[in-house]
Amino acid sequence: MDNILLLMISLCSVEIASSSTIENTKLLLQDLFSNYSDDVLPIKDQTKPVNVYMDISLISINDFDEVAGTIKIIAILNISWNDESLVWDTSVYGNTTSLTFTQGKIWLPQMFLLNPAESNEPISNKHFKVTVTHTGDVQWNSGGMLKAICTPDVSKFPFDQHTCTLDVSAWGFLTKQVTLTIPSPTVNLKLYNVNNEWDVIDSNTTLWSDTFDIAKYSITIKRRYLNFLVTVVIPIVMLALVNPFVFILPFNSGERTSYSITVLLAFTVNMTVVSDRMPSSSHPVSHLSYYILSMISVSAVIVIVNMFQTRTYSKGDRNQPIPRYISKSVDFLQQICRSKRIGDETQHVFTQSSRNDQIDKDAAGENSLIHDISESPDKTEEPVHEGVKSYVIEDTFSASKGKLLNFPMLSAYDLT
Q1: Coil, strand, or helix at residue 379?
Q2: What is the pTM of this model?
């Protein structure tokens, strides 16, 4: 029994001695940074570059300004590399395998946004921390509010979509010092909070490498158009459909003018509402703006035509001469319609004449057949009655009136 108790005490002593304690952690930090400099590349062979892995996690889209051409997002940069100066033996320091401390203690590949909409500052914060393992692997999660330039295309508003790109680089380090690697082909959306106005429909990553490396993270966003469709687009289309129906109203109802003016005012009010909600961009201009402008123009023309019609209908003095410009316009339209009608009737006459020629040929063939039958020896010859009647085919066309006066007719032979 005593031997078992002694064995248990010895095992507990060994476990306590090999566990990580605060003294071991302090000693480890003291030994690691006793001869450490954050201005030196964390690699033993200084002729080789430090390979930095970087992914981006999108948290939210705070704002997209189509007029200013900017996008504001919150994102996290997941950056990792290997620091060969931060390697230790875990058995010496109580099996301590990792440490977490503030980022200002070690060398960092500070990342900058190369297409910022405001000041160009590092994508980091002094309160961020880094985690280092005993093999020298460093994990640094920096990020914050990023406001980048994004050129919009609102021509298809409100069914528009835009692609915005974030250009991130370790500013100040050449390719021979720091090389960037993007492990994932897309942006990480696991932590993304859904936006009420925009949907993220696609994303991709590319790496540009020359004198220095640039990581490009592209995000394609699409507008949620249902609200705008119900409140703006559908009412405008319905007004455009009912606008021409003003011409079916009777003149004596007195509502034609008020109806057309009311529709014109409704289009004007909708134009004001749309202008407040539509991006004020001049290049390019939304197709919806052109559509509303064309509908206002058509409505204005309808109002003008309706006024002239009402004025003509209510004209009481029959002896008052018609204005010269109106009579000339009517004469011009009559000439056009008359020329078209004469052309159609001439074509009809030519077609009828060809049909008459065919009838004449058929009639001639029938006469010859009758003549052959009458001369046949098998039949009794009978004289042809003197009263054989024939009718003259006459085509008469009046060029002065442009009308067909008499159509050709052909009678059958009376053989009685």
Answers
A1: coil
A2: 0.66
